[in-house]
Amino acid sequence: MSLDTPVKGCLHTPVLRERGQREVFCGLTGIIWLHRKMQDAFFLVVGSRTCAHLLQSAAGVMIFAEPRFGTAILEEKDLAGLADAHEELEREVARLLSRRPDIRQLFLVGSCPSEVIKLDLGRTAERLNQRHAPHVRVYNYSGSGIETTFTQGEDACLAAMVPGLAETDAENLLVVGALPDVVEDQCLSLLHQMGVDQVQLLPARRAADAPKVGSRTRFILTQPFLADTAAALERRGAERIAAPFPFGEEGTTAWLNAVAHARGVHPERFEKVTAAPRARARRAVAAHAETLRGKSLFFFPDSQLEIPLARFLARECGMRPLEVGTPYLHRALMEPELALLPETALSEGQDVDLQLDRHAALAPDLTVCGLGLANPLEAAGHPTKWAIELVFTPVHFYEQAGDLAGLFSRPLRRRAILSGEVRP
């Protein structure tokens, strides 16, 4: 669909705000993709055995592997105040750093247990920085499920890094959000071909490549759940480039076009660089759109990806969003997306029982939801797509547009095959 296609968007659509029972993963889950991205970082969760089991299960790490995350487990004596948990934590950090000299960034990650007993991880990080700098930089942030949904763990992590970034007076572009390396390389290649130089990344793959920020820094988000990080960068004097998010051919083109406009790229050069990958993306999406076109869609709130994905599925795949729920709706970040999203019902927050009632009444062809709701809904005859898979799978930019559409077409094809409507 053309970027110029007229559409009655959702900029002025009333939003149903719900504050009831929630069904989401906690922010600790973000460690699973962040520890793979930052190659010399270590994430130390200060939490319970439940936190350790969650990370071990979500990451699928074998017991004899030594990943770049771990849990400092709070025992009964810590919870009862019979031991100084701060001293114990500092001792465990010293042991970790002596065993792993490759660590350059250490994140102390708060959890529900550590926050309930009010461990001051901020002060602990300050003391550890004084002791281990400059070899290791220590940060802290909260991944507690009390405060965060699972994608907000990344937001809290990146926001914690911003105050420590070096100052610069140079003009530079900062691309913000953790992307798989192959997707990041594609993004940088497109920007380079457009003539956009001085591009830096947050997070960088290694501490030595950490970006610099100043009043001449322009930044653009690749993920829609980075509101706190955006605010932290703006406090440092950086200016955000507003754009739709790079999902699908349309979103990617609009995202790149926003950068091109900000950096004075000539339209002819922009067209020359993007024409071929745009055509490939359209062909790849079209292969799945045949399955998706005309099908109805319901988003339960989970990842904050819901609005950009609904825009992609409606405008490029021909689906009909019946309700788009999101944990938080940050209007400043979502405005370009809301302008493009065809008119539909929007909800913010969650009240599971009420949303299940609306879902049952609407009976959509495809439901995007968390793992906790997927099995019951499948048992009731509703094809589902796990929302968490959309975060773990490479889905940004042109070359992944077909893969993104395929994540939604496969549940419908599977249901059709099982029901005998089509042959395998």
From TrEMBL:
Cofactor(s) listed: [4Fe-4S] cluster
UniProt keyword Nuclease, yes or no: no
Reaction catalysis annotation: chlorophyllide a + oxidized 2[4Fe-4S]-[ferredoxin] + 2 ADP + 2 phosphate = protochlorophyllide a + reduced 2[4Fe-4S]-[ferredoxin] + 2 ATP + 2 H2O
One annotated GO biological process: light-independent bacteriochlorophyll biosynthetic process
This enzyme's EC code(s): 1.3.7.7
Gene Ontology terms, MF aspect: 4 iron, 4 sulfur cluster binding; ATP binding; metal ion binding; oxidoreductase activity, acting on iron-sulfur proteins as donors; oxidoreductase activity, acting on the CH-CH group of donors, iron-sulfur protein as acceptor
Function of the molecule: Component of the dark-operative protochlorophyllide reductase (DPOR) that uses Mg-ATP and reduced ferredoxin to reduce ring D of protochlorophyllide (Pchlide) to form chlorophyllide a (Chlide). This reaction is light-independent. The NB-protein (BchN-BchB) is the catalytic component of the complex.
Source organism of the structure: Aliigemmobacter aestuarii
SUPFAM superfamilies: Helical backbone' metal receptor
InterPro entries: LIPOR_BchN/ChlN, Nase/OxRdtase_comp1, Protochl_reductN
Residues engaged in binding [4Fe-4S] cluster: C26, C51, C112
Pfam families named among the record's database cross-references: Oxidored_nitro
Domain Nitrogenase/oxidoreductase component: 26-403
Keywords noted in UniProt: 4Fe-4S, ATP-binding, Bacteriochlorophyll biosynthesis, Chlorophyll biosynthesis, Coiled coil, Iron, Iron-sulfur, Metal-binding, Nucleotide-binding, Oxidoreductase, Photosynthesis
Identification of the protein by name: Light-independent protochlorophyllide reductase subunit N
Free-text remark on how the cofactor is bound: Binds 1 [4Fe-4S] cluster per heterodimer. The cluster is bound at the heterodimer interface by residues from both subunits.
Pathway where it operates: Porphyrin-containing compound metabolism; bacteriochlorophyll biosynthesis (light-independent)
Sequence similarity: Belongs to the BchN/ChlN family.
Subunit note: Protochlorophyllide reductase is composed of three subunits; BchL, BchN and BchB. Forms a heterotetramer of two BchB and two BchN subunits.
Coiled-coil segments on the chain, per record: 72-106
